[in-house]
Each structure stands twice: as C-alpha cells, then as structure tokens.
Amino acid sequence: MASNNSVAEEGGDPGTAQQVSLKEFRSAGRGFWSHIPDADWNDYRWQLKNRVTTLEQLQRLLPTLTPEEEAGTRLANTKLSLAITPYFFNLIDPSDENCPIRRQVIPRIEETNIASWEMSDPCGEDAHSPVRGLVHRYPDRVLFLVTDRCASYCRYCTRSRLVSNAAGYDFHPEFDKQIEYIRNHPEIRDVLLSGGDPLLLGDDKLESLLSRLRAIPHVEFLRIGTRIPIFLPQRITPKLCAMLKQYHPLFISVHSNHPRELTTEVRDALGRLADAGIPLGNQSVLLKHVNDDPVVLRSLMQKLLMCRVRPYYLYQCDLIAGSAHLRTSVRRGLEIMEKLRGHTTGYAVPQYVIDAPGGGGKVPINPGYVLSHNSDRVVIRNFEGKVFEYPEAADGTPLASPVNRIEEPELV
Ligand code: SF4
Questions:
Q1: 150 lines ligand 1 (CB under 6 A)
Q2: β-strand pairing of 280-286 with 250-255
Q3: pLDDT per residue over 89-124, tens digit each?
C-alpha cells in the first residue's frame, strides 16, 4: 500500500521507526532540476514559471505514470488544472504509485466518477455570497476570495468550481465592492482572505488590500488562508514578512496534509512567518491513502508544532464532485481522533469537523467521551477507556458529597 500507510494500522507507538522517519526534516532537494542555478531555484517567480502543467512533462518526469493518471491528466483542463511547482514535485516518490504526495496533486480518471450526492459547491458558498467573491456565512466574519489561482492544485479542492478556471467559472474579484460590503456591515469583525491563494498576489497588491481592510474600524482581526508555504516556500521572503507584520493582529492558516510536506525549506519559511509575530495554524483534509492513518497524522501534528504551527482543523473531505477516491469514512476519522486525544500533547490535536453539506457551516465531530448525563452525575470515559463520574445536580450545581457507584451508562 502507500508508503505512508505501511505503518501498523493501530497503536502507533511514538517510538516506532516509521514515526521517527516521518518526523525527520529533509530538504525537497533539486531532483530533476539539479542544473538550475540556485538564484533561479530559490526565486518563487522561477518556480511558478516552471510548474509542471502538461501530460508530456508528467510522462517525462514520472515514468511510472499510470493509465488512470494519464487519463485523468488528459481531462484536467476541463475540471481543475494540473499544476505542480518543481519544488513540490520533488517530494513525489516516483517509484511509488500510491505516494501520498502524488495522490494529492496528480489527476486521476476517478475524478470523473460523480455520485448524485456530490456537489460542485459543497459548502454552499455561492448561496451565501452577497457580493461576488465575498462569503458571509457566519454572523461576525466573512471569507474574502482574492484570486482563483494557486501555486499547485489539490485534486480534492473544495473550491475547484472556480479555482484554476478550468471549469469556466470566470472568477473576477471586485475588491472595491467586497470592501464596501464589509465597511457597511459593522458586525463583521474578522476577515479571512482566501482564494485561490492570497499569497500569490504581489506584495504591493496584497498590502493595498490589507491596509484598506485594516482601515475599517470594526475589522478587529485579519486572517490569510494559504498553501503557499507548503507548495512554494520560496515565496515567504523577508520582504513579504516585513510587510505582513505591519497588519497585526494577522493570523495565517496553512494547509498541510502529510508530514513529508514539512521539509527544511517549509520549516524555515514558517519560521520566518512566526518570527514576524504571525500566529500560525494548520488545516488538514483527511484523505484516503494520504493521511488516514493515526501514525501519519500524529507525526504531522507533532511536526507542525516543531514548526511553531498549531494544528487547527482536520476536515472530513467535502462532498466535492469526483472526490470519492480520496474520501475516507467519518468512522475512520473518529478512530484516528481517538488515537490522538490523550495520546499526545493537546496542542497537537486538531478539531475534527465536517463542513455541513450544502452550507451548514463547520460542525465539530468528537468521539463520545460523555457516556451519560444523569440527574446527579456526568459519566465520562478517558482516552484509555476508563470510566469516571463528575458529580453534578441536574441544574448544573456541584453536589456536596461524592457519588460512590457507577450506573450503567445511558447512551447520550
Ligand atoms: S491550495 Fe487550497 S484553494 Fe488551492 S487548490 Fe489547494 S485546496 Fe484548493
């Protein structure tokens, strides 16, 4: 099976050789691009210009390209484009057809299998857009889409209806209207810039946007959602960091799914952002044969902390059209969460969520730790399965004397 999944499925002793290996920081190296001068390789513009975008390039660089991948790539330009930065391409193990990095970015023909419950807009964003490019789903915050482009394209992208424009969505943000809406809605205290990837905007354009938002008195807090530090760490320049730090409080959520994505280059880029005083969180998507394994996910979460990034959300993969081959079950997600909570640092445990299909927002999903809530106690279990009681009257007041016996738990 996949190189990430050759671990013992259960248990996940933190001392296993596998976990130690997953947590090592390695450089992505130069791979097929060893002849490129350092100045080019380390220049994000060069990386963007030289992305892998065609079937011919894939055939040349990846001799193990499968018929499913080849067929998927032929159709990518009608659904979600193919693009992979040379830096990120080097993380693919060419000898492993099930490489977890490869599964995330190389199209497969299974993307054309569309179930009746799958959607092009699974989070119902378009239905909650009062202005093009602005999603106002929750009471006090908005999602501000700034571009439809990314450094590389993830095959499970929730926003693939618009990202890369392969499906013809023709997204054109209208910053003036988006900002005007925020200015006219004093309840909006939190703006999340996303896309596409906001860090693909040039420094000046991004700064203009941040400064205009910062000038709105009721906007307390700015956030950027980006996968650039993972796909293109060269973009995290000292100049960009110096600009961003002027707009605090500014948080950044990165998106990493597998510990092999956390290279020395990524660790250094995240360190530059952290040194600029930017609190960093991570969002992961639970993906079949990529990271649906407790050892892999625990390694990722622990490694993120070593990069000064707090794991934030673990998403159940949205019901995006053509993503069944990448989705894993909620049951599996809960099993994995059981193996994180209590088994490692609380900071390393993300909140597992389902973005309710159709636009219901994020719903937290937790293993059942409350066994029953009776008239005089709450019966709970810990991460080892041991049962405990917390005395409490029905109205929520603490009881004077401890409860001595454990009743059969009632299902809650
Ligand atoms: S980086 Fe984000 S927006 Fe871009 S393709 Fe990946 S998931 Fe979609």
A1: yes
A2: parallel
A3: 999 999 999 999 999 999 999 999 999 999 999 999
